[in-house]
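Q: what does this look like with iron/sulfur cluster bound?
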Amino acid sequence: MTGKPGKTPSDSKAADHHHLNGLSSGFGVYIHWPFCHKKCPYCDFNSHVRDEIDQSGFGQAIITELKTMADISGFHRRPLDSVFFGGGTPSLMEAEVVGHILKAIASLFSLSDDCEITLEANPTFLEAERLYAFHDQGINRLSLGIQSLKDDQLAFLGRQHSATEARTVLSKAQNIFPRVSADFIYALPDQELNEWQQQLSQILDLGCDHLSLYQLTLEQGTAFYSLAKRGRLTMLDDTMALDQFLLTQEMCQNRGLPAYEVSNHAKSGQESRHNLIYWRGGDWLGAGPGAIGRFWHQATGKRMETRARKDPDAWREDVNKQGHGLSHQHDEDAAEFASEAVMMGLRLREGIDLNLIETLAGPRSEWLNSDEVMHLCRHGLLALQEDCLTMTDDGKTVMNTVIGRILK
Ligand code: SF4
């Protein structure tokens, strides 16, 4: 799915830059809610556990930072394709706080009825009670972090819900929201191909029009990472993980949910517009602790990256002092933009248009190793048609190596 071109009424040099694949790259807002009930042992997201949270204070600080981001970017009144509440666990937000933030977004930008407005949720009964209220406040897409349909796996992953609870909350969500996505994690230690095959078949029976299916990976700073370092956790071996990945591709494809990105599967037209903005090199503003934004800056015509401080209290203090909690504002140079466009775009089935990247980042000889591209095409890891470069299924299994070799 692609959003509308999202140009600002004032138009500018920057607004011509919103097409990387000959498709609209779109404009979105990302809100980061950094709090969770409990830290999951595999998670390296910016999430914090607190006894008490001043919800309206944090909501107000997010609104203040959004106003600053609108000023910095010059995107006032620009039509939005997507708003995304991520985290952390945004389903722990009071619905009223979500409503206030959406109202502020509607007053700063242009928010139409067909804007995709997603909220990430955990499928516990506690959070399920708020689903109607979230819908009433304007959320039209729910992304549920189910992770597994088996209780022993949920316990291993440190999740707060049971499989039965997840199924109940999912079907409730499907009755309330027009679009519901679910996340699952596979390639767990000792997971057998057979077991994942059976579970994936049950997952595909749940009737989701969008699935994010991730392999468990070890991230620095997590509890699993320290366990693995001490030899108390052994990850699934690469060959078995690869078999599960390939099986996932095949089963989802056969059931009408092909991968439009390495880990994301959707029925036609149900792709996440928000994620497509990231992968197609579109513009998004971030607000909240640790939020990242990237956009073509209206005044300079350069691509800017912003990063907010991660610690919620330090972030909020900065917002109160200076209107934002950014720790980093950076104009990307051509090579940085080209790397971002190649790394993100090759994750997509549609691939990248080298010609278009060239118009933004300068001659490809400066950022692309064309000999290596041809070499990897001959080995079936990449495919080049006209100027459209895509990663083949074989390429996806060694994606980081392929990208590392073709970028200068
Ligand atoms: S609920 Fe999500 S964000 Fe929070 S700790 Fe677990 S995986 Fe991380």
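Residues 338-408 form a domain with the Arc Repressor Mutant, subunit A fold (CATH 1.10.10). The pocket of iron/sulfur cluster is lined by residues 36, 39-40, 43, 45, 47, 87-89, 122, 145 (CB under 6 Å).
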